[in-house]
Amino acid sequence: MSNHQCYSFRKGISVQKAVTQITRTMDIAKMWCYKLDIKNYFNSISIPILLPILKNILCDDLMLYEFFQQMLSENKASVENEVIQENQGTMAGTPTSPFFANIYLKELDSYFIDCGAIYARYSDDIIVFAETEEKLLEYKNTIYKFLNKYHLSVNTQKEKISKPMETWEYLGMEYQNGKIDLSYSTKRKLKGKIKRKARALYRWKLRKNADDTQTMRAMIRIFNRKFFENNNPHELTWSRWFFPVVTEKNGFEEIDTYLQQCIRYLSTGCYGKKNYKITYEMLKNLGYKSLVNEYYKFKKQQKTVDFSKNHKIY
């Protein structure tokens, strides 16, 4: 697939390339921005519309096309020895669904490539820029027409137009005047997960009569895996997703502070000054890693690698 504006699930293409290509555009901060999310994208893909697109792409491998055709046309599945029937689009979560999600809106991607717009799509997340509000609204109407043609709809809760010099968000990050940080929604969602996990672990501690150290270590281990320690190259950690792109540490500092509060909460079941008997050094001894510190380590290592590439010894 030759489309270079679709950045999702493609070898050699990354979220870093999607964001950096946009943010390096001259005067991007002075442009109008339209950001949208497609509602229930994977499960809303129309198989009758997808199949001709797929056949055209796989015209030199009809056996593979016929396999996909049979797989996509079958709406029955066996679940716990019971056959159920349900239309599930491209079956989100299966290994092939990202490929189908990429090619389904290839015509939309090609349209914006051909017209020279600053545009990017990462699966169901789309962003486009224009120098004027009128042009942006024209782009918005075009996207709505394409989505209607492909039997898709916009998630209006995640739809936003940003004026020049205003903050815009994409792929969990926010951009304003040359600076890239964690978006508000990213921080809010993660704080919710941290708080829920802390409450669950505290209840577990009471049920199992576990000690504070064991409980706090479990909490730290869970979020270390989410942030840094995932050896599966197909699963994204924060260090893989955000570290190469973000330029500001403010969001990481905010998450660090909140996570430390919730880890300390596990010792008392409440929030307050007395929790600070659990010092930062104690948290580090339990395995805690600061997002800010790890981010700085990553940037330092990145500079070293870049320097080595630019100063080869022959």
Walkthrough of the structure:
The chain is globular. By secondary structure, the chain is of the alpha+beta class. The strands form 3 sheets. Strands 4-5-1-6 form a 4-stranded antiparallel β-sheet, sandwiched between helices. Strands 7-8-9 form a 3-stranded antiparallel β-sheet. A two-stranded antiparallel ribbon has the order 2-3. Helix 8 (184-208) runs antiparallel to helix 9 (212-227). The mean pLDDT is 88. It has helices at residues 15-23, 41-44, 47-57, 62-73, 97-104, 106-114, 133-149, 184-208, 212-227, 238-241, 250-268, 280-285, 291-310; strands at residues 32-37, 76-79, 82-85, 118-122, 125-130, 160-162, 168-170, 173-176, 179-182.
Short description:
This protein has 314 residues and is of the alpha+beta class.
Annotation, overall tally of beta strands:
9
Report the span from N to C terminus.
37 Å
Order of helices and strands: HEHHHEEHHEEHEEEEHHHHHH
User: Radius of gyration from the CA trace?
Assistant: 23 Å
How is the main sheet built?
A: 4 strands, antiparallel
| Structural class based on helices, strands and sheet pairing | alpha+beta
Level of helix content? 40-55%
| Bulk shape | globular
Lateral arrangement of strands in the main beta sheet: 4-5-1-6
- SS summary, helix count: 13
Low-confidence parts, pLDDT < 50 over ≥5 residues?
none
| Content of β-strand | 5-15%
Let me know the average pLDDT: 88
Compile the SSE list and pairings.
Layout: H1 15-23, E1 32-37, H2 41-44, H3 47-57, H4 62-73, E2 76-79, E3 82-85, H5 97-104, H6 106-114, E4 118-122, E5 125-130, H7 133-149, E6 160-162, E7 168-170, E8 173-176, E9 179-182, H8 184-208, H9 212-227, H10 238-241, H11 250-268, H12 280-285, H13 291-310
Antiparallel strand pairs: 1-5, 1-6, 2-3, 4-5, 7-8, 8-9
Helix pairs in contact: 3-4, 8-9, 8-11, 9-11
